[in-house]
Amino acid sequence: MLNKIISESNIQKAKKLIDKSDKIIIITHISPDGDAIGSSLALYHFLLQTGKSVNVVVPNNFPGFLKWLKGAKDIVVKEWKENLVRELLDAADLIFCLDFSIPKRIDQLGPMVERSAAPKIMIDHHLHPEHFCDVTISHPEISSTSELIFRFICRLGMFEHIDKNIAECIYLGMMTDTGAFTYNSNSPYIYYIISELIEKGIDKDAIYDKVYNAYSESRLRMQGYLLCEKMKLFKEYRAALIVLSRDEQKKFQWRKGDTEGVVNIPLSIENIIFSVFIREDENMIKISLRSKGTFPANRFAAEIFNGGGHLNASGGEFFGSLEEAVTLFEEALPKYAEYLS
Ligand code: 5GP
Ligand code: MN
Questions:
Q1: CB of 223 closer than 6 A to ligand 1?
Q2: Does the beta carbon of 196 sit less than 6 angstroms from any atom of ligand 1?
Q3: Is the C-beta atom of 314 inside 6 A of ligand 1?
Q4: Would you tell me which of 113, 149, 177, 307 could form a disulfide with 35, CB atoms 3.0–4.6 Å apart?
Q5: Per CATH, which fold does 217-340 belong to?
Q6: Is 303 in the pocket of ligand 1 (CB under 6 A)?
Q7: What pTM, to 2 d.p., does this model score?
Q8: Could you identify the atom of ligand 1 that is nearest to the CA of residue 317?
Q9: d(CA 90, CA 84)
């Protein structure tokens, strides 16, 4: 049996809002990952069954290895369809906010959502949710928003409505937010849910294959280059750094998703517990941070790179040059020596 996580009052409040609504928007965070897209599409398919008009809206594009999911082609990318997004938001009578806890994470959509009169329901697992939703279903102890969607549907008494498509989306999100069940994955309920999803007809091995064995040749070559030529170890701090410039991205025909997971690789070196990946983006520097054990990657992200996230997986942004970002990182390491050395 699945344990109860979401409070009964939140379930009842959400149920009322869903029953009353006709035009629902599901929004997830910028640079959507597997859990963002998986949880959004799972909820999308579920709500479509109830005969409502439903749209998934994302701030910008998402990686190709998520595009095979059913419904992925219907996702509205704000960057490409500004007017449509405005119309959808104006007409919406319910907004779901999935896999983010602060409006800043949906970029320019943030103020638009906050201004909207439509009621909002957050379903999320990030720390420190801000109070911009009418119903806040926030569970940082759960490893993925997709797992929360499974729990949410079950608690609405609609387990029977979870079909193979919904199950695939949920599994994909649970898998990608736990590194294919290699971290944040000790809860026995995860495996209970997986067994239910397999009963629904998913092929978990095929899903793994479509997500993790979908590299382009240039992506694999870039990964080799980054590990061989660009990875710098700071052994006295048990830390690693990889930096990728715009020129290098051009050389390897970088596309969104191509560097996903690169930041995790240095953690496979014995005694490295903190890994940082710094990538030069169009108009900012994007930083990804990963750690093992108790090292607070989210504190480092917040204090040094104006970001945040989970203890072992966090991110941030920097507005300046690549060199300045690297210097910031290198100068910050000694300040965390009590954890790292
Ligand atoms: P990633 O390195 O995969 O982009 O991000 C890992 C995690 O860090 C995300 O799931 C999210 O929780 C958090 N994160 C990433 N970028 C940011 C950011 O710019 N600000 C904040 N607050 N959190 C971020
Ligand atoms: Mn997530």
A1: no
A2: no
A3: yes
A4: 177
A5: Diaminopimelate Epimerase; Chain A, domain 1 (3.10.310)
A6: no
A7: 0.91
A8: 19
A9: 10
Dihedral (Cα; 163, 167, 169, 173), 10-degree rounding: 160
pLDDT per residue over 204-221, tens digit each? 999 999 999 998 999 999
Q: How far, CA to CA in Å, does 252 sit from each of 33, 43, 64, 225, 259?
A: 21, 36, 16, 10, 11
Which residues does 223 contact at the CB level (< 8 Å), separation at least 6? 215, 262, 265
Q: For ligand 2, an ion, list residues with CB under 5 A.
A: 35, 99, 145, 177
Which tokens go with 72? 């992925």
Distance of CA 176 from the midpoint of ligand 2 (Å): 8
In CATH, the architecture of 8-212 is Alpha-Beta Complex (3.90)
What spacing in Å lies between the alpha carbon of 148 and ligand 2's midpoint? Answer: 10
Distance CA 285, CA 18 (A): 39
DSSP annotation of 107: T
> 252, 319 in Cβ contact below 8 A?
no
Q: What is the pLDDT of residue 1?
A: 87
